């Protein structure tokens, strides 16, 4: 079976960053979180933090902002109406019914696009809407943990990613493909 990372692999960008930018344009309350979020993006881009660091880094944003959005479902639909075009065309050409997406993006954002794309098998990070606390952070080595919990009998023939953050997933796949833009290169 084929397993894919989502952000910068199938989707051209980082969904959480794009989702935050959606609110930057529409809700001035988010501006107080922007400096901290920029630091998080920088550290993520250069692989400078752990799962625990990620939880701490996102905590104030999630607890202070996300939990106060009353129109989240509606906003997610509007977000994907605008950003669905960023799904890379190469994926539709290789897609199979048993594909599994394993992403650090949150399930409340992924649910809508997975439904639109007809993808039934996916894992994302999960956040409690009332508290803003992570129920599941699907990032770094946690991706393997949650993948094995949800798909215990699955064997990864091919894994596609854009980042060495997914080294743990690469280690359990037979073949690994590195995606940069629309270029795909086998690295294992």
Question: What are the SSEs and their pairings?
Answer:
Elements: E1 2-4, H1 15-26, H2 34-45, H3 51-64, H4 72-83, H5 89-94, E2 100-106, H6 107-117, E3 122-127, E4 134-136, H7 142-150, E5 156-161, H8 167-171, E6 173-180, E7 183-186
Helix pairs in contact: 4-6
Task: Describe the overall structure.
It is a single chain. The protein is an alpha/beta fold and 188 residues long. Helix content is 43%, strand content 20%. It has helices at 15-26, 34-45, 51-64, 72-83, 89-94, 107-117, 142-150, 167-171; strands at residues 2-4, 100-106, 122-127, 134-136, 156-161, 173-180, 183-186. A 7-stranded mixed β-sheet has the order 4-3-2-1-5-6-7, sandwiched between helices. Strand 5 (156-161), helix 8 and strand 6 form a beta-alpha-beta unit. The protein is globular and about 45 Å long. The mean pLDDT is 91.
Gross morphology: globular
Reported for the largest beta sheet, the result is: 7 strands, mixed
Q: In total, how many beta strands?
A: 7
Number of helices: 8
Fraction of helical residues: 40-55%
Q: How is the quaternary structure best described?
A: single chain
- The separation of the N and C termini measures 16 Å
Mean pLDDT: 91
**Proportion of β residues?**
15-25%
Rg (C-alpha, Å): 16 Å
Structural class: alpha/beta
What is the N-to-C order of secondary-structure elements (H for helix, E for strand)?
A: EHHHHHEHEEHEHEE
**Low-pLDDT segments:** none
Neighbour order of strands in the largest sheet: 4-3-2-1-5-6-7
């Amino acid at each position: 079976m084929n397993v894919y990372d989502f952000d910068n692999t199938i989707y051209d960008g980082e969904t959480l960053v794009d989702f935050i930018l959606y609110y930057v344009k529409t809700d001035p309350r988010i501006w107080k979180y922007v400096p901290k979020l920029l630091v998080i993006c920088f550290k993520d881009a250069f692989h400078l933090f752990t799962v625990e660091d990620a939880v701490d880094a996102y905590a104030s944003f999630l607890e202070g902002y996300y939990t106060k959005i009353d129109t989240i479902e509606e906003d997610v639909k509007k977000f994907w109406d605008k950003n669905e075009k960023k799904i890379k065309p190469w994926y539709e050409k290789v897609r199979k019914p048993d594909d599994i997406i394993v992403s650090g993006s949150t399930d409340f954002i992924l649910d809508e696009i997975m439904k639109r794309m007809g993808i039934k098998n996916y894992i994302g990070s999960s956040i409690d809407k009332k508290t803003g606390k992570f129920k599941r952070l699907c990032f770094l080595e946690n991706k393997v943990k949650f993948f094995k919990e949800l798909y215990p009998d699955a064997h990864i023939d091919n894994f596609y990613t854009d980042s060495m953050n997914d080294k743990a997933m690469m280690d359990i796949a037979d073949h690994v493909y590195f995606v940069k833009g629309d270029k795909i290169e086998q690295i294992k």
